[in-house]
Amino acid sequence: MSTPHNSAKKGDIAKTVLMPGDPLRAKFIAENFLTDPVCYNEVRGMLGFTGTYKGVPVSVQGSGMGMPSIGIYSYELFNEYDVENIIRVGTAGAIADNVQLRDVIIAMSTSTNSAYGDQYRLPGKYAPTASWALLSKAVEAAKANGSRYHVGNILSSDTFYDDANSLADWQKMGVLGIEMEAAALYMNAARAGKNALCILTVSDCPLKGLSTSAEERQSTFLDMMKIALETAIAD
Ligand code: HPA
Fold first, then answer.
1. Mean pLDDT of the chain
2. Predicted TM-score (pTM) of this structure
3. CA within 13 Å, CB half, 52
4. Is residue 135 in a domain?
5. Which domain holds residue 178?
6. In angstroms, what CA-CA distances link 207 with 69, 96, 161, 167, 204?
7. I need a surface site. Which of 29, 187, 189, 193 has the fewest CB within 10 A?
C-alpha cells in the first residue's frame, strides 16, 4: 500500500513520527539520532525514515512548508499508516515580548488565519489544541534539558511575507510566536482521534528585527531534537 505522496508500505512507519518542515532535516535527524534508520519515502523529495531511539521505534519525515503541505502528509500518516503521534519540530518568529532568540516554544494551542478548518463545517471557530499527553511529556523533557521554554498559544499563518503587518495585534492577545503549520496538524489529529504537538525554536524576532546565525540555528535545533525524542519515547 502507498499513497500519492508516500511510497511507504503499512508497517514501515513507527507509531510516533517527528516532522520537521525540511526533508533534509529529517535525513539529518535520522542519521544523527536514530539507530539503523531506513528511508521509506523519497516521493517529491519528502524524505521519511524509520529507526530506533533508545530502543524505541521512531520515524522522522519532512512536512514541507505551510498548512496545505503538512495537511497532506499528516493526514496520510494518521489515516493511512496508523500513526498515533506526530511531533512537529520547527522554527518560529517571536511575537511575545519576553520570547527571545533560541528559546523553545511548546505550542499548547494555535490561532490561525488559515481557512483549513472550514472543511469541518463547524458552527463557530475551532480552537486547535495540542495533545496533553505529549505536551506534558515535552515540558518535562524541556525542564530536564535545562532549556529556556514557553508554553502557550502560537499563530499558524498562511503568510510569511505579510502585507498587513499584523504581529502587534497578535502580541496584544499574548500569542508567543509565529509559524506556518501547527494548526492544520492539530486539526488533522483531532479529526482522526490521534495526538499532535508542535515544538519550536525561535529563529527570529520580526518585531525587533533580530535573527539567529546559521550555527545558532543548528545548535538550538539539536537541543529541540533531544526534547522531541525524549517526548517521543516517554511512557
Ligand atoms: N513567520 C512565519 N514563520 C516563521 C517565521 C516567521 O517570521 N520564523 C520562522 N518561521
1. 96
2. 0.97
3. 5
4. yes
5. 16-233
6. 27, 9, 13, 7, 9
7. 193
The finding on whether 157 has its CB within 6 A of some atom of ligand 1 is: yes
CATH code for position 97: 3.40.50.1580
Assess whether the C-beta atom of 179 lies below 6 angstroms from ligand 1. yes
Q: How far, in Å, CA of 167 to CA of 147, rounded?
A: 25
Q: Which of 162, 163, 204, 235 is catalytic?
A: 204
196-230 pLDDT, tens digit each = 999 999 999 999 999 999 888 888 889 999 999 99
Active site includes 22? no
**Residues of the chain where predicted confidence (pLDDT) is lower than 50:** none
Question: Greatest CA separation found in the chain?
Answer: 48
Question: 56 C-alpha to center of ligand 1: Å?
Answer: 32
Q: What is the pLDDT of residue 216?
A: 86
Nearest to 85, CA basis, from 18, 37, 23: 18
In a domain? residue 7: no
User: In this predicted structure, what is the pLDDT of residue 151?
Assistant: 98
Atom 5, ligand 1: residue with shortest CA distance: 93
In ligand 1, the atom with minimum distance to the C-alpha of 159 is 2
Residue 6 domain-assigned (yes or no): no
